[in-house]
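G., the chain you wanted modeled:
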Amino acid sequence: MPIRARACLLAAPLLFAPTLANATPPLRLPWTCDEVHHVTNGHHTNTHTGMDAYAWDFGLAVGTEVRAPADGVVRMVKMDSSQGGCNSAYANDANYVVIAFADGTEALHMHLQHNSSPLHVGDEVKQGDLVGKVGLTGWVCGAHLHFQIQHDCGSWWCQSIAAEFVEFGDPDEDVDMASNNCPATEPCAAVLDGTETVVDDGDASCFTRQSSWFWPVDGGIGDGHMYTWANDASTADSIGTWNFAVDVEGPYRVEVHVPGSDASSQQARYELHTGAAVIDLGTVDQSTGAAWVDLGVHELVAGDEHWVRLADNTGEARDLDRKLAFDAIRLSYAPAPEGEGSSSSTGSDDGGGESGSGGASSPGPGDGETGDASETAGGSMGGVSGAADEPPRSEHGGCGIAPSRSIHPLALALLLGLGRRRRR
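Predicted structure as tokens:
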């Protein structure tokens, strides 16, 4: 199946993964689906201080459509200004739309074009609805969209607060992003029914990614997979999650597929949510080559919220340049033969990650051992909340920025081409 192109790709926060900060409705990027735009200014820069400290500036050209990041109600609109320039004297001349969310937070979309919004105060909006178009109103030195999440203070411009976007987290300055503000995908159809189920990274409804640091490459199940860079940060930044439901509960053998290329991490650590608890599945050496790796038999309870998860903070130094691969998982019903007891883990104790008949038992965390493609090692992934150190920010930009950097057509074609590979 085809997947959408994503530049500096993708991922999504989930249950039991790091949660969105101060934004109850999941926020999508505030422009049209699959369009690629640049983060020209981030947080706490020389032009984003005080009330704007947690704002972003996105390099959208004049006339580019701005889209609602989530469902809400219009609280304030200003569309009557045609004034703007690179001077603080124009600060109050910006056109804007403020969309309020049910949790008391709201989104400010600023520097919009004169009379470009179809919205009025009190209108209900849905994610993806047209908010307006980018203009040159207010204090601007180049076309861009100023976007921030804030609490309602009674005015249009309130104190910005920390927030994150689904699949991108808190994007850093100088990053290109392809919008995930797209029509809703079908619910994940991966349901364990007492047979065998494969969940591939190409299934956007079942495989989700947190952060923008994922890259699509050829090879693996479905003719492609994703990778990010393994690192030794204390907390995870990029997390891939294979989601599934369980209709027929019981013991299932869990296997992960390691592709034959772009997979060099030697300490890929997987976790499993059994429906009752989160357990460690052990460590896999992905550098050994293409193979299905057996992570043991585990007892899964019926329900809709189950996953296998892999995070980038494997404990391997970033300067080793080891690629952490995300391909497919396979779950096969594996009841014990009649008259024999089950050796599967229940996920109900602290020693999760115990292997069944197909895997080695796991040493404890901190023993320095890693498994190969047919063995697992125990320990806890730990520290998956929050974000790891990110690439350095530049020290300039913002609402006093120069005109936004355009993306060369060849670069855009490459970004889109990377994502549009054929998948199962």
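Residues 191-333 form a domain with the Jelly Rolls fold (CATH 2.60.120.260).

Shout if anything looks off.
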